[in-house]
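Study this:
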Amino acid sequence: MEPILIVGAGPGLGLSIAHRFGREGRPVALISRNQERHGGYLSSLRAEGIEAVAVAADIADPARARAAVESVTERLGPIGVLYYGPGAADPAARPAPILQIGAEDLDEAVRTTVRPAVDLTGLVLPGMIERGSGTLLYVAGLSAVVPLPMIGALAPASAAVRTYALTLNAALAGTGVQAGAIVIGGLVERGDVHRAAVAAVGDGLPTLDPDELADAAADLASRRDRAEVVFDALS
């Protein structure tokens, strides 16, 4: 099977996605900023017999993103699944609410969230179309479908990622390639943001099981009967 490229490989959903798709027989490629964690991630995957590689890169830098994808492709072959779920640069940071943001805040959210999605898609999609197969999965926050003023600039940026995924899926009809959005409302257990939130305010927060999310992502990729799955632990 063709490899899955996981952009935003963290201890929560990213690693669950890696294990879930790896168990199907796909080689796994991880991209994240934190190279120090890669050894542990790779060990956990290889312990299950999953072929895996990892590359450290800030995907908000187009040149580094391109170099990372090229490195992965050279080692594992053409990408069959792109999973785009980058984590927060500072898991403990709280965004400014929507009434307090300016244009520069939105520019930054687009630079770090929306632009990399488009850049990475441009690197893998032409090959998928040429081969007539492939899956593109994009993570968006619940603010993409439910007004959450406290999320601030992340809300319109997340909505842009979701709309990009759904519009891509419509445009790709008949090509053998699909795109889908995984909309997440809640703290993903074992993830960095979840750990930071628990450290700050304690337990009792609305959470989601990353293994259940990963199962849903795999189902979305295999069944191809819908373009979106929504998880809402907030309401």
